[in-house]
Amino acid sequence: MPIDVSPLVDFKNADVVQEELNRKLAELNKTDSSKEPFMSSISNHIRSKWAQAQTAKIPIEARLNACKRAVRCQYDPKKLAAIQAIYGKDFDPPYPPVIATKRDDLVAWLKDSLLMPGVDLFSLEPTPMPDLPQGMEEQIKIRIEQKFFQIAASQSLQSGLPVDMQVIAQQIQELQPVIKDRVFEEMKHQSKESALRMTHKIKDQFAEGNFTSELKKFIDDIATYPSAFLRGPVQKKAKVKKRVMNVETGQWVTDIEEQIISSYERISPYNVYPVNNTADVNDTDLLILTANTASDLSDLIDVEGYDSDAIREVLSLYRSGGLKEWTNVTAERDSLDEKDSSSNYDFIDCLEYQGTASGRMLVEWAGSEPSALALFGMELDDEKEYQIVAWLIGTYVIKAMLNPDSLGKKDISKTGFSTDPDNFWGHTSLPEKLWSDQSQCNALSRGIVLNVGFAAGPQVEYDKDRFPEGISPNFYPLKQWAATGAQMAGGKAVNFYQPQLVVAALTAAFEFYRSLADEHSGIP
Fold first, then answer.
1. Cα–Cα distance, 495 to 162 (Å, whole number)
2. Which parts of 21-175 are beta strand (E)?
3. What SS3 class is residue 285?
């Protein structure tokens, strides 16, 4: 059952949100009036996509917050306020960890299954009809035919007869079915060898690219949110240690080198913004919100492909007040993560855009057609849409490039606890699936706590008119009561009522709903 997210955020009309985002964009553009027009062409395009994606994600962000609260055993603020309005502001209602326990069980289950010591996470096997690189099949065929030719020629020489090339050619022609089988077997052998080499290469990339560590975070997200995202392989510069021989001393020393490695990264669902509600990440324009340090950006100055002037402008703006992309749930998310959103923000937010842009925008950003040809490696058609990757900070596009994937696919994958093939965020998370069971267990736990409190001692009714002035009505064991008889007709001066203890019945109901969580989640 999906979580009722209606009280979590103040949903604004989409037009109002769009108007606010357009106003912020206009303010940003004012600060960039000195830049060339082509800078605002592609940046405005990305900003427009960002505004659409933010508006579309408002209800999704509420779901993300609700899931995070559930695994942390925290009540929704409005629900907590309603409970405390009844039982007092100091009442701390219990929150039994039904969802949190199932979430931890799922995480442990997945990690044990996927990350077993000594067991490979994956294996590569060639298809039954392997496709080898162009020309390799012909090379194999020629090599096998040469072997048959040598055998036939050798047999002729051993018989003492002269080698008749026409006869040998005829024999090879007759042996074509056998040769074809041999070629196929050799192709299968070569494809298995290629698969084995690729397996070793991928394992090496996983080790260098921190894949296992990021996979663990990805598993945590699968068990918590509607969708989880894993990115890679992404080519990045990294400093690595190398053992090299010092030619002067003859000793092995550790040297630090910069290398391009294939890295992997878990992306928080909070930071992924699809523009359209499509099930496949490759069918929609996508934005990823990232946080960078000033040092990260300064290292990109004068690096080929980056706009150094734009980076300098960004750093100047950062030093004068920072660059933060405020989202609809920034404050609430910071509160859940126990961060102070009012403190100084020491990062520079960047929007990475993976989507389409016209050739005209790209040429304008490059400055000229020759520059665009040098940057993008091809002549661009003004009216054609291209799959690109671009990085936008404020109003500055610090880099834009064509999608490096030859098939135009994005370098990010997603999945979830359960899937819906019809929309991007259609996955039902584990917390959402168990929310009804958790709500019932919460209510029963509150009932148990309150019943125990009431049944711990008697409820007392006393006739205040029967007590002389100055006599305390406080109650304690073996107390002697001094009461007047003036109101004897009114009955006893003190009456005691013992509330019934119904904890056993409440506990049985609690266990029933907790057992339903096993059935509904499929996690024992």
1. 130
2. none
3. coil
Q: pTM here?
A: 0.78
Q: Within 10 Å of residue 205's Cβ, how many Cβ atoms?
A: 16
d(CA 443, CA 93): 9
User: How far is residue 365 from each of residues 31, 177, 384, 387, 391, measured CA to CA in Å?
Assistant: 18, 60, 15, 15, 12
Question: Token pair for residue 153?
Answer: 């020629």
Neighbours of 211 (CB within 10 A): 22
For residues 366-372, average pLDDT? 88
DSSP character at residue 269: G
Whole-number pLDDT of residue 489: 60
- What would the 3-class secondary structure string for 184-249 be? HHHHHHHHHHHHHHHHHHHHHHHHHCCHHHHHHHHHHHHCCCCCEEEEEEEEEEEEEEEEEECCCC
Q: How would you classify the pairing of strands 412-415 and 228-245? A: antiparallel
- Quickly state the pLDDT bin for 519 (edges 50, 70, 90): very high
Using pLDDT thresholds of 50, 70 and 90, give the confidence band for residue 270. Answer: very high
pLDDT tens figures, 391-407: 999 889 999 999 998 88
